[in-house]
Amino acid sequence: MSTRPASILLRSLLLFVGLTSALAAGATPAPDTVPPVPPPQSPQAASQSVAVRFETELGAIDVAIDLAHAPLSAANFLRYVDAGRYDGGRFHRTVRPDTEVRPDVAIEVVQAGVDPAREAEDFPPVALERTRDTGLRHLAGTLSMARGAADSATSDFFLCLTDLPALDYGGARNPDGQGFAAFGQVTSGLDVARKIQAAPASGQTLTPPIGIRRAYRLP
């Protein structure tokens, strides 16, 4: 009897086994199918801050401006600093227990701005960066943009003298509930800010205002 059909059958069987093994090997995940590690954050998004000093009539106040978390508000503030707009400016408002007109939502802040004679030169308003989005909070020493309506802040800013959650997003101090745009923190000179807060005032208006001699970036 001929062995040809048997050899054909054997070759077919070997081909089938080989094909099956190849398919099984192809179904095994290759090492390079592991999801790649996400790229690192850019330096801008890490923890970038800029140091600024205010030389006032009552002493120096150093602040750290938070470009990483509040880039719009920080950049807006720094363009006033870099243009020399706060030189000759003033702290003009104090809110403290004896000047507070909103005892239901009391705050303690001092507010500053450019020389009133130069307010007409202010840059266009900056969009409101809500604390809901930035993750920043109004704590003792926080810098924040003063505003009326949302997206109306220009050059005026204020310093918090105590923790003030009423100024955060959802807080009750501003009727619209949008809060204020925190963008920095005092690193030195909070005692000077407290002296400014305690200075003589007519209502909430410092009388006379406390002058800002210079404002500039620190190395």
Query: How many separate domains make up the residues?
Result: 2
Major sheet details: 8 strands, antiparallel, barrel
Radius of gyration: 31 Å
According to CATH, what is the topology of the largest domain? Cyclophilin
**How are strands sequenced across the largest beta sheet?**
1-2-7-5-6-4-3-9
The CATH class name of the largest domain reads: Mainly Beta
Total of DSSP H or I helical runs spanning 4+ residues: 5
Mean pLDDT, as a whole number?
85
Which of globular, elongated, flat, extended, rod-shaped describes the shape?
Answer: globular
Structural commentary:
This protein is an alpha+beta fold. It folds into two domains: 28 residues; 170 residues, Cyclophilin, CATH 2.40.100. The chain is 24% helix and 26% strand. The protein is built from five helices and nine strands. The chain has an eight-stranded antiparallel barrel with strand order 1-2-7-5-6-4-3-9. A hairpin with a 2-residue loop joins strand 1 and strand 2. The protein is globular and about 35 Å long. The termini are far apart. 32% of the residues are buried.
